[in-house]
Amino acid sequence: MSALPLSGIKIVDLTRVLAGPVSAQMLADLGAEVIKIERPGGGDDARAFGPPYLADPDGKQNNNNSFYLCANRNKKSVTVNIAKPEGQEIIRELAKTADVMMENYKVGDLKRYGLDYETIRKLNPGIIYCSVTGFGQTGPYAPRAGYDAILQAMGGLMSVTGHLDGEPGAGPMKVGPSIVDYMTGMNASIGILAALFHRKANGGEGQHVDVCLFDTVIASLSHWAQIYLVNGKTPPRRGTWGNGGMPAGVFRCTDGELMLVVGNDGQFQRTCAVLGEPELANDRRFVRNNDRVVHGKEIMAIFAGLFLKKPVAYWLDKLEEAGVPSGPINDFEQVFNDPHVQSRGMRIKVDHPFERELSLIRNALTFSGTPITDYRAPPLLGADTRDVLATIGYDAARVDALKAQGIL
């Protein structure tokens, strides 16, 4: 078994909340040494985004909540007050030997601390410096703060999400999870990896990687946004309807709901047979997929009535036999009890100071030669401060003095 892909890569991570930490966690999973810089006392802002929190063995309040736990495994936590000159010097010393520095402060904020890209590049010309922001390093909105829900609204995602017009509750709707943060984290990881490859392949030069939530959400709208660019019309909200094949959507059965996606004409013919109405496949309104899109409300209404005749499990079995994509609408308990999810090992157990077997979600990447097999729990605040600072020459006495001054 080979070493993990990013073994030997050192990252100084000044990001907080979700998008940046998700990216740093991905890179840590791949073997990078990620040194997470947190504020003394409070730490990453995400530590306050609870409940729920883990139960402290002594019954004390703590800052290890689910929001923080989801994005900070496999890292080292070092507390540094970057508002103080001594703290700024610590970050610069760490950056001198780092491959990557990550931050998600407002544009220009770190310049006053001497921790901006231009300053760090002079100390380490090979540094990959990744900035993760709401709106990017340039443009009229660059100074603004940005959170996932705001960017879902401004980027167009909410305009095409929600119940169909005319249905109860119709109107723009936010996607449940912080999906824009997560996608931005993925883009940041891709950018960092590409810059690392460029540095190795093209002479050792570093660069500034600018990743933002606004760019990410717009790019993620893919064919939905392309429809507008082709015909100048924003696609309507479709509720649970599919985005290509028809019919596709949630159908109520006698004991629950299922999701169906009929992707082509052959699948439509087989679905009609499963539903006991094979002649529907020959109805001139529904013969081709384009026809079914035009007559979407009609075919969806017909299918809705047919699915109401049997329970979910019956239909799923029959549809699977017919080779038609469908699935149950699972809650999280059902997801993690699903035998396929269990066989893929999506739920992992790690040893945490508060909980012997803390459950986390594994990295979604699977490698044949460099598998990710070892996971470390998200660190307690400042747990690695002494060990990390020792690598840049800070002995115990100096660390104690800086702690007394509120620097660490």
UniProtKB/TrEMBL annotation:
Signal peptide start and end residues: none
Pfam name, any one: CoA_transf_3
Taxonomy, superkingdom: Bacteria
Molecular functions per Gene Ontology: transferase activity
Entry keyword Magnesium: no
SUPFAM superfamilies documented for this protein: CoA-transferase family III (CaiB/BaiF) (SSF89796)
InterPro entries noted in UniProt: CoA-transferase_III_domain (IPR050483), CoA-Trfase_fam_III (IPR003673), CoA-Trfase_III_dom3_sf (IPR044855), CoA-Trfase_III_dom_1_sf (IPR023606)
Keywords of this entry: Transferase
Matches recorded under PANTHER family: SUCCINATE--HYDROXYMETHYLGLUTARATE COA-TRANSFERASE
Name this protein carries in UniProt: CoA transferase
Taxonomic source organism: Bradyrhizobium jicamae
